[in-house]
Amino acid sequence: SQQGEEDPQALSIQEGENATMNCSYKTSINNLQWYRQNSGRGLVHLILIRSNEREKHSGRLRVTLDTSKKSSSLLITASRAADTASYFCATAYGEYGNKLVFGAGTILRVKS
Amino acid sequence: GAGVSQSPSNKVTEKGKDVELRCDPISGHTALYWYRQRLGQGLEFLIYFQGNSAPDKSGLPSDRFSAERTGESVSTLTIQRTQQEDSAVYLCASSTQGAVTEAFFGQGTRLTVV
Asked: How far is A51 from chain B (nearest CA, A)?
């Protein structure tokens, strides 16, 4: 399978704490993206990091990419109850880098 | 429209019937994806359309599944002779340049086969 694998499968933290989710993948990629899903329906794009980038920030989000280890991490700082959701990494690969494949996701619960 | 639109939102069908799911992508988006998501699981890639190129059908689970897209417009996913295992949320996404850019998702169609 070309899917990324996220860990942990589930994470429960207190509001204000940081949450870290990891993603590993199997083959060379063009980019790696993180998405959030609320209530089991549509996904919302959070951040995209290209294969030649090592770190990227967006608000309270920090994403790192280690292509030598084929892994990425998503850090959410100062978490809020509203951050409760499922988080997925998606890798873009293939001849034209157009096949976007998702991992199984991490369920994050932020307790207030 | 402003976003990706999918219809119907929910569909209950009897085992053995055919169903057709519709996706209206964002205008101007050349790439369109279909995914299947079973309860509590991740997204399973089904098919990818890019402009007028031949679609990538490598994720379709069986020959009961097919999808069409005319140009850069509406796409339909058809499931023939539905089985209970087909029950899932079917998600559609579109993007401007395939996986090089972010994908925008519809709210999905929840299919229940009884």
From this structure: 11
Query: What is the CATH classification number for the domain harbouring A100?
Result: 2.60.40.10
Interface A-B, measured as beta-carbon pairs within 8 A, has a size of 75
Per the structure, the count of domains in chain A is 1
Tell me the one-letter amino acid at A65.
L
CB contact under 8 A, A99 and B41: no
Its domain, for residue A13, covers: 5-111
Residue whose C-alpha is closest to residue B91's, from B57, B29, B46, B30 = B46
How far apart are alpha carbons A19 and A78 in whole angstroms? 8
Q: Walk along chain B (114 residues) and give the pLDDT tens digit of each residue.
A: 589 999 999 999 999 999 999 999 999 999 999 999 998 888 999 999 988 888 999 999 999 999 999 888 899 999 999 999 999 999 999 998 777 789 999 999 999 999
Question: Closest Cα of chain B to A97: distance in Å?
Answer: 6
Task: Tell whether omega for the bond before B55 is within 30 degrees of 0, i.e. cis.
Answer: no
CATH of domain B5-108: 2.60.40.10
Cα distances from A97 to residues A73, A92, A111, B4, B100, in angstroms, run: 21, 5, 38, 22, 7
What are the boundaries of each domain within chain B?
5-108
